[in-house]
Automatic annotation (TrEMBL):
Domain of life: Bacteria
Species assigned in the record: Pigmentiphaga aceris
Pfam families: Ald_Xan_dh_C, MoCoBD_1, MoCoBD_2
GO molecular function per UniProt: iron ion binding; oxidoreductase activity
Protein name, per record: Xanthine dehydrogenase family protein molybdopterin-binding subunit
SUPFAM superfamilies tied to this protein: CO dehydrogenase molybdoprotein N-domain-like, Molybdenum cofactor-binding domain
């Protein structure tokens, strides 16, 4: 008997990845390809007065230098009275941010293009710029989707017996996936094929259709493997349109690959965020009012919101709450979604403030959260489709030894090191999007499965293969799953932790449709042992179609297909969220318990122990799921202690544009991490009962670390990252 769901399964694409068979965008071989290298602006705002490309054009191997003066048109022509906007590269002399593309040098080799890019001479008329969020807070505008306050938070705050009021800062942070962004474009007549590092092939297809003025069906976008993205490839970036336009102008294939430094202005970032949090409670710790104001930056030419405060409304039972978000324009590139967007930033502030409140009340931080536990969704009043957060708290506290914690800051030691214990809550949505998948089941007992989703690392190839194998009754090696191509059925972007619930439900639906078709075929035969049985009561298993609770009633599928002259059966299934979901609130939850050890002389912090307990529905592949959660914890450690993109506001320039200067965790930073799942039986969220986990894993970690640092040192650091000088 073959059953896969719920069992630890190694990656079906693992061997391809470690042997180099898996092709990433820049590795596709296209004959006669030319190499593009992007030239970036060195001012933050203004216009190009002259751009001298003569020396570059005369350099060895250079084919062409494209600037705003000779570039092919991208996008619709702007209206005469439209304000200056930046939507497409090389379309005007205007500069909107430092690091904006202003030329593309194309040569026979990458080295020649890179060398010649340094020979382009540019003069600017600079204008006064503003890249510091602090200086433009007064101009911040409410988020496009403001949510009204609940109850009367201001009056309730005034009457609260105990209050805390603090401000929290999170700097700009960058995704820094290992694979740099890249595209290779070539035209065959009016047909464009483009290899692109993307989380959404259909999104890039639509974007290029608008930019190039070509019907979407003439554009094929291919992206079979992505070496990490974390949100940096959710929106179409500027380089695919630039590459496709250049290939059209040159009538030959063009390849463009970002350098690490170009990635810092080429694809967005987590915005600079300032949050002002006031909590009011009665003497017993019951929350009376939450006022949580958030501000973050966007660019001057595009409003972007990461919905910093949206999940906060659903965390604690509090009758009075206001959580407005305001966005302020800066002369920087547009931010974008970055793993756990909004939630990790918002929960850093809320969960730090909850810790501050616990000290003001002299109530244990875990007890304070239990006192304010939301049994139903505090925002809508709807029941939760499932919620095992209480069990996460209980299990985590027990396993961590939380009740042995001395609440007094600086009271716990290991030799000369200060020991701190902190905890926090995490929350993320249990989303499902519309998605399609196609299965072709062959008479030889193999199947091809396809959906135009992505695999940015979480193991999509593996889990979709497992789902198909489970419901077709096959072995994993009899199923071939393919993704990342606009020739496949439409799927949503891989983001929001919704891929398994969305695409997985479509794969399951296609497999069950094939089962029903086989039953129909079988029952055309009067002597079929499956007569009178409903499709829901039969299953495919090891080459047989059988009644679920009576394996003696079965038929051989290969014989049935041979007898009816059927070589293969193909089904495309569209899955959508069920109407029943609307009656419930659906969220994934978790609890984090963290131990830190701080050297009081040096201010250095080691995160020595992390225990993360997660409730996110059913776990289909525990091996990959634990890996996801561990990765989330590691990223949370980076966000808490190391990550920050420094901006030199005199020039509006991102300064830490390398992995030498932008610090991320290394092996020496990571100690004991244990991840535990509390499985939920949720029949409402989707047919598979799964909830998102990829983002959830990091949501509570920065707050839990900050809370542990306070417990260790007595110093409350409210601006990330918590570096040694902030403790000394």
């Amino acid at each position: 008997m073959t059953r896969y769901l719920g069992k630890e399964t190694t990656r079906v694409d693992g061997i391809a990845k470690v042997t180099g068979k898996a092709k990433y965008t820049a590795e596709f071989q296209v004959p006669h390809v030319a190499y593009g290298f992007i030239v970036l602006s060195t001012i933050a705002k203004g216009r190009i007065t002259t751009i001298d490309t003569r020396e570059a054009e005369q350099a060895a191997g250079v084919v062409r230098v494209i600037t705003h003066l000779n570039a092919g048109k991208l996008g619709k022509a702007p209206a005469a009275d439209a304000p200056a906007q930046w939507a497409w590269p090389l379309q005007s002399d205007r500069v909107f941010f430092n690091g904006q593309p202003i030329a593309l040098v194309i040569a026979e080799t990458y080295e020649q293009a890179r060398h010649a890019s340094r020979l382009v001479k540019v003069a600017y008329q600079a204008e006064a710029h503003s890249t510091d969020l602090q200086t433009v807070l007064a101009q911040a505008k409410p988020d496009a989707k403001p949510v009204p306050a609940r109850g009367n938070p201001v009056a309730a705050m005034q009457q609260a017996a105990v209050k805390v009021n603090s401000e929290y800062h999170i700097p700009i942070e960058h995704h820094n996936p290992i694979e740099p962004h890249a595209a290779i474009a070539f035209w065959e007549g009016e047909q464009l094929t483009i290899f692109d590092k993307t989380q959404n092939v259909y999104g890039v297809q639509q974007h290029l259709s608008e930019g190039l003025g070509v019907p979407a069906e003439n554009i094929r976008v291919v992206s079979p493997f992505v070496g990490g993205a974390f949100g940096s490839s959710l929106k179409p970036n500027y380089y695919p349109s630039l590459t496709a336009m250049a290939a059209r102008e040159l009538k030959r294939p063009v390849k463009v690959v970002f350098t690490r430094a170009q990635m810092f202005t080429g694809h967005g970032y987590r915005p600079h965020t300032i949050q002002k949090v006031a909590l009011g409670a009665d003497a017993q710790g019951k929350l009376q009012s939450i006022i949580h104001e958030a501000f973050h930056n966007t660019s001057s030419f595009e409003p972007f919101s990461d919905a910093t405060t949206s999940f906060l409304r659903q965390v604690y039972a509090c009758p009075n709450l206001d959580a407005p978000l305001k966005i302020a324009a800066t002369d920087l590139p547009t931010p974008t979604w970055m793993r756990a967007p909004g939630a990790v930033s918002g929960m850093f502030a809320l969960e730090s403030a909850m810790d501050e409140l616990s000290y003001a009340l002299k109530i244990d931080p875990l007890d304070l959260r239990l006192i304010n536990y939301a049994e139903v969704d505090p925002e809508s009043g709807k029941p939760f489709s499932s919620k095992a957060l209480r069990e996460c708290y209980r299990m985590g506290a027990e396993k961590f030894g939380w009740r042995q914690r001395n609440p007094e800051p600086r009271s716990m030691r290991d030799g000369k090191l200060l020991v701190g214990w902190g905890m926090a809550t995490s929350v993320w949505g249990a989303f499902q999007q519309s998605a399609s998948a196609r299965i072709t089941y062959h008479a030889d007992g193999t199947a091809n499965v396809a959906s135009a989703t992505s695999d940015i690392g979480p193991g999509t190839y593996t889990v979709m293969t497992m789902i198909a194998a489970e419901f077709l009754g096959l072995h994993l090696d009899q199923v071939k799953f393919e993704l990342g191509d606009t020739r496949q059925p439409r799927a949503p972007a891989q983001g929001g932790s919704w891929t398994t619930s969305s695409v997985g439900s479509a794969v399951q639906g296609a497999a069950l449709t094939i089962t029903a078709r086989l039953l129909d075929m079988a029952n055309k035969d009067a002597g079929s042992p499956l007569q009178g049985v409903a499709a829901a009561d039969v299953e495919m298993l090891d080459g047989r179609l059988r009644v679920k609770n009576d394996s003696s009633r079965s038929i051989d599928i290969a014989e049935l297909m041979k007898r009816t002259g059927t070589t293969e059966i193909t089904e495309t299934f569209d899955s959508k969220p069920s109407p029943e979901r609307a009656k419930f609130a659906s969220l994934a939850h978790g609890a984090q318990f963290v131990e830190v050890k701080v050297d009081p002389d040096l201010g250095t912090i080691k995160v020595t122990r992390v225990l993360e307990i997660t409730a996110c529905g059913k776990i289909l592949n525990p091996l990959a799921s634990h890996s996801q959660e561990i990765g989330g914890v590691v990223w949370g450690i980076g966000m808490a202690l190391e990550e920050a993109t420094e901006v030199d506001h005199r020039y509006g320039r991102m300064m830490t544009a390398s992995l030498q200067h932008y610090h991320v965790p290394v092996n020496a930073d990571i100690h004991s991490i244990e991840t535990i799942f509390v499985e939920e039986d949720d029949t409402v969220v989707n047919p598979l009962g799964v909830k998102g986990m990829g983002e959830l894993g990091m949501v509570g970690i920065p707050a839990a670390i900050a809370n542990a640092v306070f417990h260790a040192t007595g110093k409350r650091v409210r601006d990330l990252p918590i570096t040694p000088e902030k403790l000394l």
